[in-house]
Amino acid sequence: MDKKSFRKDCLRRLKKCPEDRKRILDKLILQKVAKFILHHKPKNILFYLPMKVEVNLNQLLIKERKKSNIFIPFIVEESFKMVHYRLPLRRNNYSIYESANSPLVRKKVDMIIVPVVGVDGNFKRVGFGKGMYDRFYEKLGQKPIVLFIQRVECKTCKKITDFHDIQADYYITPQKIQKLGKRDDNRDCIGRRWSHSRRRSSVYKF
After folding, report:
1. What is the DSSP code string of 14-43?
2. Cα dihedral 27, 45, 183, 56 sign
């Protein structure tokens, strides 16, 4: 399995999720992320505004806006910068909603919440192939807590990502929160078992 075929397989599974099921799964993830934020108390959080296959955390974003500084991506060429979440929103060339551009570029953030297409054996992100989060993360000074979120778990123990790909501290799905560090469950998203085991991730508990 390579990154391209894994991405295709994950996208197929994400797109098959029924609309009514999406709302249930997103609510479960929202609750987990909310508890996580309450536990870590970040002052500056990078959220995102979702596409159809991504978890919708808009309700949580609006709620946390009262307590923290909330930023969202603003796409610039092949990467993005953080801008304050504020209305009105507009669609960019990728049909993703954005707030207005700002000349102020913030380089420090306490937590970033990242949507994923899949996760590999290095706990690294498989996205849509544009590399925007990778370029953004590389330029950050102080490294924040990185949360990957996904409504349908799509994870392989194979190492199919590149050195520059962004790595998670935690991977959140409706069923559980996995933490980088200890062990892998040795299964990919389809349930196939690989012949070797990796001690990479463990289930996180508050």
Report:
1. HHTS-HHHHHHHHHHHHHHHHHHHHHH--S
2. positive
Lowest-confidence region among 22-36, 87-101, 115-129, 153-167:
87-101
Assigned CATH class of 3-203: alpha beta
User: Average pLDDT, stretch 68-91?
Assistant: 89
pTM: 0.85
φ, ψ of residue 62 in degrees (nearest 5): -65, -40
DSSP characters over 81-124 = EEEE--SSPEE-TTS-EEPPP-S------SEEEEE-SEE-TTSB
| pLDDT score of 94 | 81
Domain boundaries, the chain: 3-203
